[in-house]
Amino acid sequence: MAQPPRRLASLFRCLAGVALAYGAVASAQAAGPKPARLGLCAACHGETGMAQIPGAPNLAGQKLDYLREALKQYRDGRRNVPLMRAAIGPMSDADLDELVRWYSAQTPSVPTQGNP
Ligand code: HEC
């Protein structure tokens, strides 16, 4: 005979849990490991790309090409922002690439203040 419905339901709940956990692991992998230089940016942009200080933009989920281009513009002075120029000054292209990949792969969190 078939199993009592209640046991079946808990089996399904369990399977759904496994699927969710697997999804979380898969999306964490998409972002890659934390970049070694992340600490240099996190004070202002947060580890997950949500701004920590007034005036700093959120970077989470922003387009990869856009972030890359923005950093190039700070570096060559087309965007003349001393703060950002100083932050990326000592870094190699490979370091910057790792950082923009990381930020681009983050999911923006829901803002805690302000109007939508
Ligand atoms: C001291 C604070 C500070 C630090 C540290 C810092 N940033 Fe910024 N960042 C800013 C501010 C402020 C802006 C906005 C500048 C402007 O008006 O163009 C900005 C802008 C940016 C932008 C452009 C975003 C956009 O939407 O145009 C990128 C990309 C960025 N930062 C990446 C980084 C990365 C990567 C690091 C680490 C290497 C970093 N920042 C470190 C404060 C900071």
Q: Which tags fit this structure?
A:
binds heme C, single chain, Cytochrome Bc1 Complex, Chain D, domain 2, 0% strand, 2 domains, mainly alpha, transport
Please describe what this structure looks like.
The protein is mainly alpha-helical. The protein has two domains: 1-31; 33-110, Cytochrome Bc1 Complex, Chain D, domain 2, CATH 1.10.760.10. Helices cover 59% and strands 0% of the residues. The site of heme C has 20 residues, from α2, α3 and α4.
Radius of gyration: 20 Å
Identify the CATH architecture of the largest domain.
Answer: Orthogonal Bundle
Low-confidence sequence ranges: 22-29
In percent terms, what proportion of residues is strand?
A: under 5%
Protein name: C-type cytochrome
Pfam family, one: Cytochrome_CBB3
Keywords: Electron transport, Heme, Iron, Metal-binding, Signal, Transport
InterPro entries: Cyt_c-like_dom, Cyt_c-like_dom_sf, Cytochrome_c_Oxidase_Subunit
Break the fold down into its secondary structure elements and pairings.
Elements: H1 5-31, H2 38-45, H3 64-76, H4 82-88, H5 93-105
The structure holds heme C.
Summarize the structure.
The chain is mainly alpha-helical.
